[in-house]
Amino acid sequence: MTHRLAVSSALALLAALALASVFIGVSDVTPATLWRGDGHARDLLTLSRLPRTVAILLAGASTAVAGVVMQLLVRNRFVEPSTVGTAESAGLGLLVVTIWAPAMALPGKIAVASGFALAGTALFLAVLRAVPLRSVVTVPLVGIMLGGVIGAGTAYLAFRYDLMQTLSSWLTGDFSGVMAGRFELLWLVGALTIVVYLVADRFTVVGLGKDTATSLGLGYRGVLALGLAVVSVTSAVVVVVVGALPFLGLVVPNVVSMLVGDNLRRSLPWVALGGAALVLVCDVLGRVIRHPFEIPIGVVMGVVGAAVFLWLLLRRAPDVG
């Protein structure tokens, strides 16, 4: 199969999944009702179904891309924003704003959450530099423990201010509340995905290590800072708008790496397509498993992602023992 045919097939599959997503739900929106000119079906399509599908595509693609950038920066295949404390730090920032500046506009909340996510990611990198790494599994374990500490502190703060339910809604991905006018900030993370593609070669070189990147004349610190900013802002925006999508940035880049290799410029379109497709599939599953009720996508992603994460660990067991 040629590369062009493979890309065309993947886009066709993604379009089919997106079309299925538009017409799945509790309310009756079908091609027939739209053809008859049903006003209620048309409003539901334009105000809810289409924005929801677009939000899924943007959040899925950008989160998967943030995951592969994180893996290149850390030089480890088993990390992503939700396993190194980045998503938990963004949730902490959002909680702090909610407690002490509840009237702040949404862009301001995202800026604060991005700042906390950046600080949490920088703390993770600082811990990695201080801990002797004897196994590739040590890195995600350090990240998971750091995320657990940040999450515990966040939960305590939320408990003190009676915001546990609010915190849970932020950290559990859910697209059921997406409507026109409440998802447009996700276009920002879509733009960041394009930025990553434009400098993909630099991230690939950074993935070879600081010494190699420096010897090739690359401004290592600048590319590192750009990568951290992309990961932090993407995590914060996704958490604020739709909630966290666990394991997405870990599973998709690893599967794509096995299929097309580690050259980011070549693999990035597949990572973006794979992330969007996986979120679409999980969202549809969440809507049909207990229809007419809906299971939040964060729960579905957690089950699917954890299973694939375990499979990846076992598959590489001889390398990590």
From TrEMBL:
Entry's Gene Ontology cellular component terms: plasma membrane
Record keywords: Cell membrane, Membrane, Signal, Transmembrane, Transmembrane helix, Transport
Top-rank taxon: Bacteria
Protein family membership: Belongs to the binding-protein-dependent transport system permease family. FecCD subfamily.
Organism: Xylanimonas ulmi
BP GO terms, sorted: siderophore-iron import into cell
Protein name: Iron complex transport system permease protein
SUPFAM superfamilies tied to this protein: ABC transporter involved in vitamin B12 uptake, BtuC (SSF81345)
Keyword presence, Transmembrane: yes
Single GO MF annotation: transmembrane transporter activity
Localization of this protein: Cell membrane
Coiled coil: none
Keyword presence, Transferase: no
Pfam families reported for this sequence: FecCD
Signal peptide limits: 1-20
Membrane topology annotation: Multi-pass membrane protein
